[in-house]
Structure formats: structure tokens, C-alpha cells
Amino acid sequence: MALIVHKYGGTSMGSTERIRNVAKRVAKWVRAGHQMVVVPSAMSGETNRLLGLAKEVAPARHDEAVQRELDMLASTGEQVSVGLLALALHAEGIPAVSYAGWQVPIRTNNAYTKARIESIADERVRSDLAAGKVVIIAGFQGVDDDGHITTLGRGGSDTSAVAVAAALKAAECLIYTDVDGVYTTDPRVVPEARRLSTVSFEEMLEMASMGSKVLQIRSVEFAGKYQVPLRVLSSFTPWDIPIAEEAASGTLITFEEDEKMEQAVVSGIAFNRDEAKVSILGVPDRPGIAYQILGAVADANIEVDVIIQNVSHDGKTDFSFTVHRNEYARTVDVLKTKVVPTLGTDRIEGDTKICKVSIVGIGMRSHVGIASKMFRALSEEGINIQMISTSEIKTSVVIDEKYMELAVRALHKAFDLDLDQPAAAAGKS
Ligand code: ASP
Ligand code: MG
Hints:
Elements: E1 3-8, H1 16-31, E2 35-40, H2 46-57, H3 64-74, H4 76-91, E3 96-99, E4 106-108, E5 117-120, H5 123-130, E6 134-137, E7 141-143, E8 149-151, H6 157-168, E9 172-177, E10 198-200, H7 201-209, H8 217-226, E11 230-234, H9 243-247, E12 251-254, E13 268-272, E14 275-284, H10 289-299, E15 304-309, E16 316-324, H11 328-343, E17 347-351, E18 354-360, H12 370-380, E19 387-391, E20 394-400, H13 404-414
Parallel strand pairs: 1-2, 1-9, 2-6, 3-6, 9-11, 10-12
Antiparallel strand pairs: 4-5, 7-8, 11-12, 13-18, 14-16, 14-17, 15-16, 18-20, 19-20
Magnesium ion is lined by residues 9, 155, 158.
């Protein structure tokens, strides 16, 4: 008997029939003697529908008054979900009570549409649990110090669930979703991708931030900070499969590295097409130049990812970096207006047709030669590497976008991640 948090995503809550299934699954856990807290998302498509309505009544604006109302509006999706799920549990004969974020309360700062959780009061939840009720808490939302409703950013109910699990010191937080776990890479790109039965928290962070969009990245950060045992699993298994089987399915995000010792050095291949490359050619090679360029970019609140500076010739060098593709135009603008006038070069080149491919694995810490194996696999495919960046547990390359899938497949194979049998049950709905 343990305190368990379940989180159900939008697809799992997508229809009244699916909500009845969620209720049956939760009821099964209750009957097995567990204390249950459930954090659902809005029914699939609902948040988009609500935000679409906002666009119909008024043009998008960024001021606080508008953002406040967007949160007031978007938070209703989850309120519908919790009410329906509580009713469905009652129909199963299970006592249950639902709460909006402000009723718990889940306190956040006042950054509307991207608020951060500051604290979660546990008294009310604990007394309901003690009274034998399932407690259902709306994901994605909270309340600021002045009583305004806030939301946590798209995909934020993952973070709600992990934060609730941390506050209650739950034994485990199970994230039920429409994939059956975390894969070595996206099975749509590599059909031979395998589900990982465990992945370390640090690897997950790298994979989540690089496009393996299983969990909202903040939820992973939260789980790491508060050491919340986290499992990602499918909500499409029959609700009545044995609990022991269900509890061991999916992917467990672990904190211990020892278990991984005998496993592969590289755990997964991540990739994204979200970046663009900007180069400034012929900049003087003297102290302060990197600061002059990237300082201006940082002042404009633009995040820089991979950076490369070449060997200089005749006191001149080339300087390149990547930014999010959405920030590309703004970055070039900042360079032209703030940097070029003082730099003595106006040769700015950009490339939006790039992608970043990374190998990720905590095993890389204790093994040498991993990066060169990566470069060899890419060269055998004739893929040119434009930029490289490394960290303890990851090596990333920037390459031409048109070779992305080829690179991912080649690396997946080179690091022995391929399954013998294609993952037919990739779990994509
Ligand atoms: N309903 C919100 C969204 O669609 C939060 C979530 O699903 O996690 O972004
Ligand atoms: Mg989600």
C-alpha cells in the first residue's frame, strides 16, 4: 500500500469512454490498497480549441491583462476533466473529490501562460486521502499570490503531476500517455527503435530537451530536483491487466547509475530541426569579440546553443552559432544593428536548413572513443559535420537538414541500438 500519483494526458482523457477507462484503471489501483492522487490534462484538442476561441474574439496581444484572461480561459479544459473523472469514479463505486489548482492550492508565481510552481499545500489532499477518497487535481494550473489563476505552459500537466508527487512524497509518479515509454529514438524515423526499460534522469533531460517530446522538460527537471520516481507508460493497455505487470511496464526514469553499468554506452539518439545557424565572417581575432557578439544576442533574450570559432588567419576569424529557428530573423537583426557597426565586418551568413543530431548516454563518461565512432558513422554515409558540441553525457553535431533521418538511422545502428525485430508496437496512436 503506497501513495501513488497517476497523470493522464489529453489522449487518455479524449472521450467520455476513455475517461471511464481511466476511472476503471484508477479503481483497480484503489482496490489493491493504494492511496491515489490523479492529475489529468484537458481532453485532447480542448486547450487548442479554447485558445482558438480567444483568437476569434480579439487579436493576440502580449500585455498582462490579456495573458491573465488566456489563463482564466485555458484552465477550464482541465476543470472539465477533473469533474468528469470524479463522476466516473463515483460510478465505479469509488469515493473521489476533484479540485482546481487554486483549491489545493498550487501556488505559482504570476508569470501568466508560463507560471512556475512555488509551493503546494498538502493538508486538504492528505485529509481526503485519509478519508479514503481518490483526490483528482487539475493539471496545468495554479494560483498566484493575488488569487489570479495561472497556467504552467503547454504540456504543463506533466509538471503538475510531478510537483504534486514531490509535495506528497509519493512512492511513484506514473505518467500515462499515448506512447508506451521512452525510445532509443523516434520510431517514426527508425522503425527498429527500442523502448528503454530504464533511462537515467540526466539522459531523459537531454532527450526531452532535444525533441523526444514525451514529457514536458520542466517536469523532468522537477523530478530530478526532488528525486521523484517517475515512470512513463501507455494508457492504451487494457485497464484490467494485472497491477504488477502495469507497474513494471513503460520506462522508469532512474537516479541510480549503477543499474546502467552493463548497458549500452549510448542510450539514445536525439534530434531536432528547431535551430538555425548564423555566421559572421572575417571578425577580428582579439579579446572581447565573442562577448561583443553573444552579449548583444543575450541582451535581446535570445538563447544560443552550439558555438564555434575558427582558427584565425591574418588576425581574422569566422564565428558561428545556432539559435532557435523562430529567433533567426531577430538574431540577424540584432547583429546588423548592434554588432556590425562596431565590428568592421558585415559578412553575416545564415542557414536555416540545418538540424542537430545527438548521441546521449551516461556511459559516455567512462568510455573514450565514443565521439570518433560517431564521426566515423557519419562519414561513412558521406554526411558533412558543420559544428560539434560535447558535454559529459552527450555529443551533438549540426548537419544539413536533408541528412537528418539518414544520420539518425546510421547512428542508431552504429551504437547497437537497433532491435532485431522492428518495434511494431511503438505505441503511437
Ligand atoms: N492541456 C494543456 C495543454 O494542452 C496541458 C497539458 O496537456 O499538459 O498544453
Ligand atoms: Mg503532454
